C-alpha cells in the first residue's frame, strides 16, 4: 500500500466516522472540495499543512491519517516484543493493543486445568479477545485459527465466532480482555 493510498483510505474512513460530508470537511479544513476529493481518490501529494488542517477539522490526531488497517489476528511472542524502558527505573513496558474509540473492555484472570476444553459460543458482532499467557501453555482462539501459546505470549483474535480455550500444561493462567464495540 502506498502512502498516498493509505492517506486516502484514512481520510475517507475518518470523515465517515465523523459523519461529515466532503463539502463540510473541506469547508472546516479550509481546503478546496476538489482537493479533498482528489486526496480521497488517492490522487495528489498533500502537504503536511493540508493534512494537519484535515486532522484538526476531523478532531483526530494527525497519526490517524497514517494508520494501516489492523489485522483481526495478532500474536506477540514473549521473546519478540518491543519494549519501552525507563531511564530512571527498572520498568519496561510493551503496548500489546491500544483501545479503539467507542469500545468497552472487560478484563478477566482465567485459570485452566489440563484435560478440559472450554468451548465458547460466538460473542456479539465485532467482539475481539486479547489473551496474555501468564503461566503454562494454552491452545486457544477461533476454531479455524487455534494457536499454541506459552508464558509471555499474546494473541488478539475475533471472538464473534465460536472459539475455545485449552490448557496444554498441568495448570495455566491467562489474562483475557474482552473488547466489545461501544
UniProtKB/TrEMBL annotation:
Q: Which InterPro entries match?
A: Cro/C1-type_HTH, Cupin_2, Lambda_DNA-bd_dom_sf, RmlC-like_jellyroll, RmlC_Cupin_sf, TransReg_Diox_bact_type
Q: Where is the signal peptide?
A: none
Of the GO CC terms on this record, one is: cytosol
Which keywords does the record carry? DNA-binding
Classification via Gene3D superfamilies: Jelly Rolls (2.60.120.10), lambda repressor-like DNA-binding domains (1.10.260.40)
Query: What CDD domains would the database entry show?
Result: cupin_XRE_C, HTH_XRE
**Residues in domain HTH cro/C1-type?**
11-65
Q: Which Pfam families match?
A: Cupin_2 (PF07883), HTH_3 (PF01381)
* Gene Ontology MF terms in the entry: DNA binding; DNA-binding transcription factor activity
The name of this protein is: DNA-binding protein
Amino acid at each position: 500500500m502506498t502512502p498516498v493510498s493509505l492517506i486516502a483510505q484514512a481520510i475517507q474512513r475518518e470523515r465517515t466516522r465523523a459523519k461529515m460530508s466532503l463539502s463540510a470537511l473541506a469547508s472546516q479544513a479550509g481546503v478546496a472540495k476538489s482537493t479533498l476529493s482528489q486526496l480521497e481518490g488517492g490522487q495528489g501529494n498533500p502537504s503536511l499543512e493540508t493534512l494537519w488542517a484535515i486532522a484538526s477539522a476531523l478532531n483526530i490526531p494527525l497519526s490517524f491519517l497514517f494508520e494501516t488497517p489492523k489485522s483481526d489476528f495478532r500474536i506477540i511472542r514473549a521473546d519478540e516484543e518491543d519494549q519501552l524502558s525507563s531511564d530512571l527505573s527498572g520498568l519496561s513496558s510493551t503496548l500489546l493493543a491500544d483501545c479503539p474509540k467507542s469500545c468497552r473492555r472487560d478484563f478477566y484472570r482465567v485459570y485452566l486445568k489440563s484435560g478440559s476444553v472450554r468451548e465458547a459460543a460466538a460473542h456479539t458482532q465485532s467482539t475481539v479477545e486479547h489473551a496474555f499467557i501468564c503461566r503454562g501453555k494454552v491452545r486457544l482462539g477461533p476454531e479455524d485459527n487455534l494457536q499454541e501459546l506459552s508464558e509471555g505470549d499474546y494473541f488478539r483474535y475475533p471472538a464473534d465466532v465460536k472459539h475455545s480455550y485449552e490448557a496444554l500444561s498441568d495448570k495455566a493462567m491467562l489474562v483475557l480482555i474482552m473488547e466489545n464495540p461501544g
